[in-house]
Amino acid sequence: MTHLRFIGRALRCVILTLLPTLSATAQNFDYGQAEALFGEPVTTSATGTPQRASDVAANMTILTAEDIRRSGARNIPDALKMVPGLDVLQEGYNVYDIGIRGYQQPFQPRLLVLVDGRQVFLDDYSRTLWDNVPVNIADIRQIEIVKGASSALFGSNAAGGVINIVTYSPIYDDDNSVRASAGTQQGINGDLTTTDKGDWGGTKFTIGGLRASEFDTWRYPLDSNPPYDPRHLYATNSSAFKLAPNLILNEELTAAYSVGTTGDPTDFGITGSQVTHTSSARIGADWAGPLGAVLFNAYYNHSFADLNEATDGGQPYGLLTNMAVFQLGDSFKVGSSNTLRFGVEYRDKAFQNFGVQAIPQVSKMAEKNYAANGMWLWQTTERLSTTVALRADQQAMRETGTLLPNAYDTLSDFDHTNRAWSGNLTVLYKLTSADSLRFGLGRGIQLPSIMNNGWNIILDYAGTPSDFEGNPLLKPTVVNDANIDWEHQLPSLGAVARVSVYHETNTNIMAPFALNPGYRMIDGYNWPVFIAGNVGSSSGSGGELQLSGRTAAGLRWDVSYSLAEVHDSAGTLALVNYQGSTPKSEGRVSLGKSIGRWDLDLRVFAVGARTMLRSPDGGAIEGPQTTPGYTSVNGQILYHCTSKVSVALAGSNLTDPEQRVSPYPALQRQVYLTLNAGF
What we know:
mainly beta
């Protein structure tokens, strides 16, 4: 037995030494094998090299497939509700926004969302449409959540944090499953994933869809009324081909269609209906050779959002965005304690606006982004490691179409360039075998969206024709933060305690169509002009407490509390109101127990008051609307019919038939029955 322990420890040491040299594309890394070896999740996303969750150079929480299944969540935002420091704002049956550490808004622009490393964050408004993400929740291996400025590690728009969704690999995992669900609000949901693999590699196909009726709750007069009923259809294919022992070629194709009623990102604070079509194509390669682990990734994202807001008399207008991304990186070791990564990135974006307005026009903009990044991971000793990352971005915008005649004078030249840099410094020190301390500094960048830079459209808002324009004079938002994280293992209780504290400052905060600099003459009338602007600054402080574990009797439990104290400058408070958008305090309790073939899980959320800008009376002027705090109860009862077949009864907002969680329309109780089967 002693010899076996020695061999096991030696094997772990060897693999730990080799991990940083391995290829790090999400689909080409065997997460299951690494997790089984180390007894904890492993990630490749933070530094581009595989790391154990306890060694990551960022404040990262990893939700495993088991966590997601036991949560009873029917979609990704539902699963994320249990993560301390995240605020999940639900605006409709299938419409969500996710804020991090006190910064919440509809069409959240500060959170970069990736699926297997591909951006699903849309560049029109800078937002994530969670109801359009082409992912089967049963196909998710893990979700990685990074809290804090992370632009240097992940990309320019990771100003406040990152969510990276990692699905099962077509070459390392046997993912063959089908799921069907039906429930309240006439909800019907189904997904199918099938994988074929061999010595040549593997390929995976996923299809899925959802249809339901939107919540039947009271809406403000300016809200889209009646709302669109939610719909979602998607199909994906991903493959990996083993061209040589050290060379893997990847491809991915996706298509998605969604219908929903979303919150408005402007200061008017209304809801509107939207139909969205997205598609993507990706190709990449991983090569482990004499130069280290070389990764190439290229993808093309297409999105078309067809909006039908109540504010323009039911006239539809569309936002077309195409983006091509090329990424090349190289990770390699220098000696036994230094890992280096260098990369370059090029993005080519094209935006076109389609509208039915008083004056027909086509607003076309193009944008080229260039970036270079570097990372140094220095394993100083067995207990001490330091990670330094730097990134430089250049955003070049130009007008390629014709704006409205007589565009507002100061904004007539839309050709301009933004330059910005971001950085991260993290020191991880393992005080003892049970205690680790992580200190981090970050500088994150949120570049102006294409719409904030150059959108131009005429709308009839509340009976008043108005001109809405982007602003080429916008400066990028800069987020600077500092955080300290402490983790303590409690083996006697089978538990882990985590404590995080942070402080951040934000400058040059952007708001779409927030400023009214004057009027312009159109057809003999003076029309008010609303433009995007840098409206002010904001600072935030707070932290998270979490204690989670499992007893010897198999009782699962997780208790957490998060605090977010935000202070906005006068302009930010009046036109964005981050200060009130996220509740100051949120508590979460999760309990679970397996009894024979039964899994019983309960989740309770206690959420503080929330204040957001809304238009309560149907007029053109909005004001801060406050929603009192609330308690929500979710739960799931799951029965394992066989090792591969299960039936689950799950629900949310179980204690109230109708629950108001924000100034947006109230939510209704949801209950759904789900059949899961593997084959």
